[in-house]
């Protein structure tokens, strides 16, 4: 039996509807959640993400303060803008879109963000709180993955989870979230990476396989057991002359064949992707609620 598709677009839409209702309650108390966004340069992927974020904010009622700066913007000027947003009571969350131009120290900029407004969940204080199980802003893509699993009825308690990929943005924080002693955790987690000797030996025993390797066909059908849940975080461009853009987007999973063995699977696009911005909106609303 083919796998059931986890519809990230629909789940994201459901969460946004919930957020919109919460925002209406906040507005009745005179509080309008605000998100400050800084984009330096014109990286196509970053521009696309920021544009989608602007649209999403408008749809659910979040005030969006968007700042698109030229690539030659100095580190000093960028830090000054971050500091201004830190002090602005209308701004509940700050997003500095990465990557930044090479002449700017990304870590220095991320450290400059007030942890109380770190809705991306990248500040070391946010990461530290997450690791020890304290309330914190959770990184958007990993939290989106967890929400997809929970809202699809996947049991995490006691599940064997294998994450393929150890990035600071997805793999590491997701592993930490899933091992927490909480309703959204209690899983047994293995993290595979480029130095793992036999990735397939690990993925074949997993109840849940999460692919975040950044490599086409990193997970093939022979690497999962029948009935496994497969979450594909990867986004890769492959040439396709039938498409107007000359390429199409695929994940890290051989979707066509893996979907014949899995019980649940996310597509690319339309799976994890829609959840990232949604969880950014969620964090922004949570930040606004903390000021009540």
What does this structure look like?
- The chain has 292 residues and is α/β, with parallel strands linked by helices.
- Helices cover 39% and strands 16% of the residues.
- The strands form three sheets. The protein has a six-stranded parallel sheet with strand order 1-11-8-7-5-6. Strands 3-2-4 form a three-stranded parallel sheet, sandwiched between helices. Strands 9-10 form a two-stranded antiparallel ribbon.
- A hairpin with a 7-residue loop joins β9 and β10.
- It contains ten helices and eleven strands.
- The protein folds into two domains: 87 residues, 3-Layer(aba) Sandwich (Rossmann fold), CATH 3.40.50; 136 residues, NAD(P)-binding Rossmann-like Domain (Rossmann fold), CATH 3.40.50.720.
- α1 packs parallel to α10 and α6 crosses α7.
Give the overall average pLDDT.
95
Proportion of residues in β-strands: 15-25%
Corresponding CATH architecture of the largest domain:
3-Layer(aba) Sandwich
Structural class of the helices, strands and pairings? alpha/beta
User: What order do the strands of the largest sheet run in, or round the barrel if closed?
Assistant: 1-11-8-7-5-6
Would you tell me which CATH topology of the largest domain applies?
Rossmann fold
Query: With helices defined by DSSP (H or I, 4 residues minimum), what is the helix count?
Result: 10
Quaternary structure state of the chains depicted: single chain
- Stretches with pLDDT under 50, minimum 5 residues: none
Number of strands: 11
Measured distance between first and last alpha carbons? 50 Å
Query: Helix and strand string, N-terminal first?
Result: EHEHEHEHHHEHEHEEEEHEH
Number of domains: 2
Describe the sheet with the most strands: 6 strands, parallel
